[in-house]
Backbone:
């Protein structure tokens, strides 16, 4: 059992050999800057659709940074990357099927 | 000869899986994929309500936005301390690992406390759900009381989304506490339960919600009693995956729920 744990610990160390400490600080700083941009835009009272587009774009970039660097996905093998991310995006995209119904309610004027 | 057949080298013991990593990590990823669909469904429900309701309220002013921004900074910083904890564990530095994990827990607790204060303020101003205990104080006529009456979907989706996330952060702090302190964490958790239970008024949802800490303390005690072990770098890395996930989800809740519902005067 100990040998097994040791082997896994070595595996973890091998997977993390790419990381320099400074890389994490850069990612953290980028995330903070993007959050500051989002808050700044809120104070500009922009048109909602334009605002939503920019905010979602920034959120997707932030999500990619967190998944890629903090959650280490950038350094996983491509099979792991593609299977997890494609299945997630496909399932989330399928949920968008409900949005036309929300618009239909608006046009019908249903209370 | 007999010894030779019993001895295994590590490469023979550990054979990389189809996905190039160990099963514990794959298991956590599978859980996180399913959990992201839970949050996805809640976010879509919020968006559906928003699209289908022409008079969707924008009740958050500068004070709420500043509070939510500080909460976001807490979570982002906790993600940084978490990766530093993983790095320390990989390097075999147990003391640094524990300190970074405790720093992560502190940031997580800061997030939960700020969020709890915000919830209490909103409830006091009249933004409530039918399941919450009734307030005796005057809230009628306030902006949030009107929102709760005219667009009940707002309170339902707001408390549903942020409450689910707050629960995840709380459980994440407990998870990290078990990894960092093991059995020593149980009395600390019980002390937090008592403080949260006795320190909140009976009309607050947190008065009853505090019992989650008691349930967690019982579950953690059973787990630590049945399977006592020294948590290694793989356990810290898997706990880190969970922690980063709650940070990731907040990156969508913050702009959608707060920033898009803000009216800066």
Residues:
């Amino acid at each position: 059992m100990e040998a097994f744990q040791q082997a896994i610990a070595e595996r973890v160390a091998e997977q993390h050999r790419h990381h320099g400490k400074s890389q994490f600080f850069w990612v953290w700083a980028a995330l903070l800057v993007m959050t500051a941009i989002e808050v700044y835009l809120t104070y500009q009272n922009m048109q909602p659709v334009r605002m939503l587009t920019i905010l979602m774009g920034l959120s997707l970039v932030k999500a990619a940074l967190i998944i890629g660097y903090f959650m280490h996905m950038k350094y996983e093998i491509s099979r792991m990357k593609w299977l997890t991310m494609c299945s997630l995006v496909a399932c989330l995209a399928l949920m968008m099927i409900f949005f036309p119904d929300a618009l239909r309610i608006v046009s019908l004027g249903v209370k | 000869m007999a010894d030779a057949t019993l001895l295994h080298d590590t490469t023979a013991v550990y054979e990389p899986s189809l996905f190039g990593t160990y099963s514990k990590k794959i298991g956590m990823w599978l859980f996180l994929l399913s959990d992201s669909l839970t949050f996805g469904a809640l976010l879509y429900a919020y968006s559906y309500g928003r699209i289908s309701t022409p008079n969707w309220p924008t009740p958050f002013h500068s004070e709420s936005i500043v509070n939510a921004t500080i909460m976001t900074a807490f979570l982002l910083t906790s993600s940084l301390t978490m990766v530093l904890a993983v790095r320390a564990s990989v390097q075999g530095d147990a003391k640094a690992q524990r300190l970074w994990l405790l720093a992560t827990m502190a940031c997580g607790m800061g997030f939960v406390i700020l969020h709890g204060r915000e919830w209490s303020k909103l409830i006091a101003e009249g933004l409530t759900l039918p399941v919450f205990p009734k307030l005796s104080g005057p809230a009628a006529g306030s902006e949030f009381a009107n929102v709760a009456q005219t667009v009940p979907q707002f309170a339902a989706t707001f408390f549903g989304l942020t409450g689910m996330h707050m629960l995840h952060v709380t459980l994440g702090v407990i998870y990290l506490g078990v990894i960092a302190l093991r059995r020593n964490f149980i009395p600390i958790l019980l002390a937090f339960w008592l403080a949260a239970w006795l320190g909140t008024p009976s009309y607050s949802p947190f008065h009853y919600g505090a019992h989650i800490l008691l349930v967690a303390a019982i579950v953690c005690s059973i787990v630590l009693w049945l399977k006592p072990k020294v948590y290694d770098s793989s356990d810290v890395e898997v706990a880190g995956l969970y922690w980063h996930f709650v940070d990731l989800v907040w990156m969508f809740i913050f702009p959608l729920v707060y920033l898009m519902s803000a009216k800066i005067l």
